[in-house]
Amino acid sequence: RYSQEQLALAVEFASMAFMYRESERTYRLLEDRLIPKAVGSLDLARSGYVGGENSFIDFLEAERSLLQFELMTVDARKAREEALLNLSL
Prior knowledge:
Elements: H1 4-50, H2 56-88
């Protein structure tokens, strides 16, 4: 039988492991799929603006989306590293 402290430690470890996996999944999604698509959208919006097909607002919106994804990537990396630190402790 496990003591209350051992059960609490097991629950905390499982929670940290889940947080690590979830932040790793989010980070990989952003790095491997969303950011490359946002870069492509930005390039398309830039060429459309230069060619006179898109407005400057379209270009700014594409750039804003890319920056948001980059900030989300930093947050996911931070969460992943914090979870890893907690697991190592």
